């Protein structure tokens, strides 16, 4: 398919953040945009599965929140347990005075992308696929424009580039923007959960069809089991042409330290079953002699599985200009980073896609204002608007990185003794602290507030 020769805004990447960036620009009255993606169609796996209150509020602004809510499941509470008993219960109704979304929405990323894509198509905007960016340079005729070259040789000339092309962003690399862990001097010990095995599975026990979020915090680890909405089953059947999966699909995830050895690229059924039996709640064990219900629960089918690392990184800046380097004045096409192109961090707390979506929604408004401002003021003054905006977004990214690292540090407590004068295991002390704090309403509310993102929109 032939690409347009030029556009004012080129969005590279049609994942959730790229789609939301386009929808936000349209909502704020800006239509001269093109969105491209390197693959033929979006990934059909679930990946990120939660949308938090602050993100739903941002999506409400551009008219997308209600559709997501209609396709997802509202998670109103979470338990954090040992393998046998509850440590803390978090109820999200504590957020009711602050948001119209006092819950976590469970909805697989593939459904989120589908809904955002359908919304974008309703405005007559097509995602151009597959078009992979391979180069970017200053336009020879106008230093304020950039020529973006694609693998098939086509070129788009543009004034603004939004990089929504993921953690290995070609645009970010071409622009020469650094991307490192903000705490790169900090060395994690061997007990830190540094890798996560993920899988979407069905179980052979129909009693699990209405189960709730299950979170377990053993030593050096965390384990979760979360039921996904049946709309996901319907979507998979529609996309694959296969019969609908009858059992509820659950997301299973277990984080562990590097010292245990690498997680397989696509963990097989036996590997996932072993993780559940070793680290999950006992009533999910496949061993009848261990399961308190007297009957084993076995993984029936692995729908999808993968692995991720819990590393973090943030771009040095989320805004720069692709300057030719021969002028002291601001010039060159504007390069703006959103989502994983701008920041990555541990999946703990389900914050990654959420922060990216909020980046995108707010960027649409800021960029529409910038385009209009350049019509009546010097570029340097207009750029102050974007500079201030990206500084705020980068500060939010650093806060989220800190939040997820704190969650990992709680999970990474080992079985060692606290001290010679306090011969209690660190895990026991941590669990006791969680149990005590879980009894205090203020701490429970602060925990739900932290997950919701309402304090760092």
TrEMBL record:
GO terms for molecular function: FAD binding; oxidoreductase activity, acting on paired donors, with incorporation or reduction of molecular oxygen, NAD(P)H as one donor, and incorporation of one atom of oxygen. Gene3D superfamilies: 3.30.70.2450, FAD/NAD(P)-binding domain. Transmembrane segments: none annotated. The keyword Protein transport does not apply. It comes from the Eukaryota. Residues 6-209, 334-400 form the FAD-binding domain. It holds the Pfam family FAD_binding_3. PANTHER family: BINDING MONOOXYGENASE, PUTATIVE (JCVI)-RELATED, TRK SYSTEM POTASSIUM UPTAKE PROTEIN. This is FAD-binding domain-containing protein. It comes from Pisolithus microcarpus 441.
């Amino acid at each position: 398919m032939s690409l347009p020769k030029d556009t004012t805004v080129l969005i590279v990447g049609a994942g959730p953040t790229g789609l939301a960036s386009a929808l936000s620009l349209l909502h704020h009255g800006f239509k001269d945009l093109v969105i491209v993606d390197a693959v033929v169609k979006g990934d059909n796996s679930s990946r990120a599965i939660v949308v938090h209150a602050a993100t739903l509020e941002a999506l409400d602004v551009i008219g997308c929140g209600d559709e997501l809510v209609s396709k997802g499941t509202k998670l109103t509470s979470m338990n954090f347990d040992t393998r046998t008993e509850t440590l803390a219960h978090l109820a999200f109704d504590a957020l009711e005075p602050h948001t119209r979304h006092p819950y976590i929405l469970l909805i697989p990323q593939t459904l989120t992308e589908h809904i955002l894509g359908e919304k974008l198509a309703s405005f007559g905007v097509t995602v151009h696929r597959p078009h992979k960016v391979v180069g970017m340079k200053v336009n020879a005729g106008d230093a304020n424009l950039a020529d973006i070259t694609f693998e098939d040789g086509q070129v788009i000339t543009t004034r603004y580039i939004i990089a929504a092309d993921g953690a290995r962003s070609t645009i970010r690399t071409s622009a020469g923007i650094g991307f490192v862990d903000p705490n790169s001097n900090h060395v994690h010990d061997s007990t830190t959960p540094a890798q996560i095995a993920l899988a979407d599975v069905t179980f052979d026990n129909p009693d699990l069809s209405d189960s709730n979020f299950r979170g377990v915090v053993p030593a050096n680890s965390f384990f979760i089991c979360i039921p996904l909405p049946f709309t996901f089953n319907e979507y998979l059947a529609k996309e694959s042409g296969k019969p609908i999966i009858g059992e509820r699909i659950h997301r299973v995830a277990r984080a562990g330290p590097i010292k245990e050895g690498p997680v397989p690229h696509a963990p097989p059924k036996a590997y996932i079953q072993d993780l559940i039996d070793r680290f999950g709640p006992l009533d999910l064990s496949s061993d009848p002699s261990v399961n308190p219900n007297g009957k084993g629960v076995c993984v029936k089918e692995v729908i999808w599985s993968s692995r991720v690392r819990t590393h973090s990184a943030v771009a040095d800046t989320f805004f720069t200009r692709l300057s030719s380097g021969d002028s002291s004045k601001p010039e060159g096409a504007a390069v703006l980073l959103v989502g994983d192109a701008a920041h990555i961090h541990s999946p703990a707390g389900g914050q990654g896609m959420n922060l990216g979506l909020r980046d995108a929604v707010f960027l649409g408004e800021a960029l529409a204002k910038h385009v209009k401002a350049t019509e009546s003021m010097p570029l340097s003054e207009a750029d102050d608007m974007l500079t201030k905006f990206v500084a705020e977004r980068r500060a939010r990214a650093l806060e989220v990185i800190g939040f997820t690292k704190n969650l990992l540090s709680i999970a990474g407590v080992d079985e060692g003794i606290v001290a010679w004068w306090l011969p209690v295991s660190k895990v026991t002390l941590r669990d006791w602290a969680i149990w005590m704090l879980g009894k205090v309403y203020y701490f429970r509310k602060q925990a739900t507030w932290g997950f919701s993102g309402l304090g760092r929109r």
